[in-house]
Amino acid sequence: MKISFHGATRTVTGSKHVVHLNDGRKLLLDCGMFQGMGKETEPLNRNFGFDPTDIDAVVLSHAHIDHSGLLPKLVQEGYLKSIHCTPATKDLATLLMEDSAGIQANDIKFINKRRKQQDKPPLEPLYSEDDAKAASALLIEHPYQEWFTVMKDVECMFTDAGHIIGSACVHLRIQEDGETKHLTFSGDIGRYRDAILRSPETFPQADYIIMESTYGNSLHDDVFSSVDVLLKWVTETCLKKKGKLIIPAFSVGRTQEILYFLNQLELEKRLPPVDYFVDSPLSSEATHVVKSHPENYNETVQEVLKTDRDPFKFKGLHFIGSAEESKQLNFRREPCVIISASGMAEAGRVKHHISNNIENSRNTILLVGYCEPHSLGGRLKHRPKEVNIFGMPHEVHAEIGEMRSMSAHGDYDDMLQWLSCQDTAKIQRLFLVHGEYDVQLQFAERLRRKGFKNVVIPEQHSAHVL
């Protein structure tokens, strides 16, 4: 058996890992899209590094586009077998893949206008909405903590990863050459003190682990301070400066967490009296899905539900649907909060809001999650004097803020706690993926000090025999 790595290698996006069995069968773990990689993004997404028709089964850890976003392209190129996931992941991935197809269709029109001016041939989107629907039709749901057969001699079980609704760590039992090998894929590991979700679960002893490492060199601020920090930004921007607070937020997870905190402020009678706009049809639909899976909520939210039937709704909240309504926000002079996708500010409506508001010093761009360094959000974190948006230079006069406490990824304490159920002497190899290389080097050293002797940081398209 061997594993080949075709994404999220020394970077945090494009998760794709292939398990090769000795008899030639192949199992794909995740099929994510690369995002925010600059000029490299397009070619990385065009070429898998493997033949989709050679894949015999797919297991999906969760619905985020950097883990699910190339499933429609996989199907477009000939994959017609099962895609295994949890129930909430099935609901969310269906939404996200179709939304991704729509974004591509719109973006490619804009790109091709520029290419035409440069006498370059037009590009085609990676896939269509029909491809996304075809991929959704292959999704098969399984509950947590139950073993199921993926294919002959390969069983799988999901445990709660605590990252987003439906997120799972993937555990495989593989019968090969008269022995059983246990392989765990972490997916994305959440936090043990998440505001909404249950903590990551313990899992059976593994022989091999593929593990994310996004925050392998840092600790988050206390999540319990998030409500007060968010209140400070709303107060400073909207009440004192009379400006707009623009929050790039992933449609799944981050948006719902912000809404939950704002709802908490209303329950505590501390919510500033301004308008709050969620400007993303996808975020609206994703919030509905999150509401439909309360079984994933932690005990604190379960208690809130006893007195508040909707912990994501409060006075002054408006969901924006049409593009025309979104454009009208640009002409609004009154202070307000705009929560819009994408979280890295690399695409979607929030990029337009930033473009239209970044040169006004009354406004604030508040970054509330991880941003790939090359993305617009990643560039803004360095507080530049000027940034290019849609190919045009913009002077940065708006304040750039950050809330480190709101990451859905665990920090190194969370990741070490996730590993604490394992006997280090029995781990034959631990592969670090989904992290920047310098961060991975630091986390690998931390893991070695904890007793994990064989820590590997794979390169793109590399293969490792187990």
Automatic annotation (TrEMBL):
Q: Where is the signal peptide?
A: none
What Pfam families does the record tag this protein with? Beta-Casp, Lactamase_B, RMMBL
The source's superkingdom equals Bacteria
Alphabetical keyword list:
Hydrolase
All copies of the Beta-Casp domain together span 255-380
Q: Which GO terms describe its molecular function?
A: hydrolase activity; RNA endonuclease activity
Task: Please indicate if the UniProt record lists Hydrolase as a keyword.
Answer: yes
Enumerate the spans annotated as Metallo-beta-lactamase domain: 15-227
Give the PANTHER family listed for this entry.
CLEAVAGE AND POLYADENYLATION SPECIFICITY FACTOR FAMILY MEMBER (PTHR11203), INTEGRATOR COMPLEX SUBUNIT 11 (PTHR11203:SF37)
**UniProt-recorded name of the protein:** MBL fold metallo-hydrolase
